[in-house]
Amino acid sequence: MKQFIPVILSIGLLSTPAAAQEQSETDLDEGLSLMEEGARLLMRGLMTEMEPAIEGLRDTFDEMGPAFAEFAQTVGPAFAELLDQVDDLRNYEAPEFLPNGDIILRRSPDAPIWMPQDESGEIEL
């Protein structure tokens, strides 16, 4: 990344006009084309430097893909069932962790009354 600092600085210095010069339209067009070329060079350099990291991520995702699919198949239904039993997470206070490892989710005192219903529309008591 330190290699790009001199390049960016020199492009910036080349693209700024001298205070005593008058610029014609061709000078302005040339300055814009230099800036465009500098931006292209910068992006090309960034992509070249990032390519190994992107390839590493791609390899990691390829290796872990089947594990993620299995995780989604096993945990997904259980998580959906849990969400069916909870109306809105904003109606609950922060989790409380007990010394024995239990976790308590308390409903906020100002939360609206909620009664879970089963699929038949009946209220479970």
Provide the fold topology.
Blueprint: H1 4-15, H2 25-85, E1 96-97, E2 103-104
Antiparallel strand pairs: 1-2
Fold and architecture overview:
- By secondary structure, this protein is mainly alpha-helical.
- The chain has one domain.
- Helices cover 58% and strands 3% of the residues.
- It has two helices and two strands, in the order ααββ.
- The protein has helices spanning 4-15, 25-85; strands spanning 96-97, 103-104.
- The chain has a two-stranded antiparallel sheet.
- α1 (4-15) packs across α2 (25-85).
- The radius of gyration is 30 Å and the shape is elongated.
- It starts with a helix and ends in a 21-residue tail after the last strand.
Provide a brief overview of the structure:
The chain contains two helices and two strands. It is mostly helical.
Report the total helices: 2
Strand content: under 5%
Supply Rg.
30 Å
Mean pLDDT: 76
Largest beta sheet: what is the strand line-up? 1-2
Quaternary organisation: single chain
Give the SSE string.
Answer: HHEE
| Biggest β-sheet description | 2 strands, antiparallel
Sequence stretches where pLDDT stays below 50 over 5 or more residues:
none
The CA-CA distance between the termini, in Å, is 64 Å
User: Which structural category fits the helices and strands?
Assistant: mainly alpha
Gross morphology is elongated
List how many beta strands DSSP finds.
2
Number of domains: 1
Fraction of helical residues: 55-70%
Features:
single chain; 125 residues; 2 helices; two-stranded antiparallel sheet; mainly alpha
